[in-house]
Design a protein that fits this description.
This protein has about 190 residues and is α/β, with parallel strands linked by helices. The chain has helices at about 45-65, 120, 145-160, 180-185, and strands at about 5-10, 15-20, 25-35, 35-40, 90-105, 110-115, 135-145. The protein has a 7-stranded mixed β-sheet with strand order 1-7-6-5-4-3-2. A hairpin with a 2-residue loop joins strand 3 (about 25-35) and strand 4 (about 35-40). Helix 1 (about 45-65) packs antiparallel against helix 3. The chain starts with a strand and ends with a helix.
């Protein structure tokens, strides 16, 4: 079956947001252009890593003197998006893998989210070496560098608004206890 590709060039909006209480939140990568939108469920760790790698890529672009594009170090105020996810949120798919790249033809950051397939979730034997992985759905978004910097900042802020991170194990601390706290009590 062919892959369904949700393609957005120069979207009106691209954000990471959440639904639910800290510790029970679902993260979404949401993209909208006009009346068309796509919402992809992510793990918190995927969101944070995407923001970190995006900033690294933008810094690399800016530091290369031969590169025709440059990325702002700060976030342009007019690009800051603090609005919540657009309702109703209808999950198009859950992301199993993310990709990040640079499109030199348009001088834009490219984000790709690949659907997590049911066969991947419980596959203890690993993928068949002869089989080529073809996701059922892909989200591909191209955004300009300023929008990318604002996206990364917002994504970090959304992730940090949840449960605090344990300084010992770097995992979220639950309000009703944490394994590292138990070790300190012994």
């Amino acid at each position: 079956m062919p892959t369904l590709v949700h393609e957005y060039d120069w979207p009106d909006r691209v954000i990471v947001g959440t639904v639910g209480r800290p510790g029970e939140r679902t993260f979404y990568l949401q993209v909208r252009h006009g009346a068309r939108s796509t919402s992809v469920a992510l793990e918190k760790e995927q969101s944070v890593l995407l923001a970190e790698k995006m900033d690294q890529l933008l810094d690399e672009v800016s530091q290369n003197p031969d590169h025709p594009a440059s990325a702002p170090k700060g976030v342009p105020a007019e690009l800051v998006d603090t609005d919540p996810l657009e309702q109703p949120i209808e999950e198009d798919f859950r992301s199993g893998a993310l990709g990040l790249g640079w499109d030199p033809r348009t001088a834009q950051i490219v984000i790709e989210a690949f659907a997590l397939e049911a066969s991947q979730e419980g596959d203890v034997d690993g993928p068949d070496e002869d089989a080529r992985y073809e996701p059922s759905e892909v989200l591909r978004v191209r955004i300009p560098v300023g929008t990318a910097r604002a996206f990364a900042q917002r994504t970090r802020e959304v992730a940090l608004a949840g449960r605090p991170i344990c300084p010992l194990c770097a995992r979220p601390v639950d309000p009703d206890g944490h394994v590292c706290n138990l070790l300190d009590d012994q």
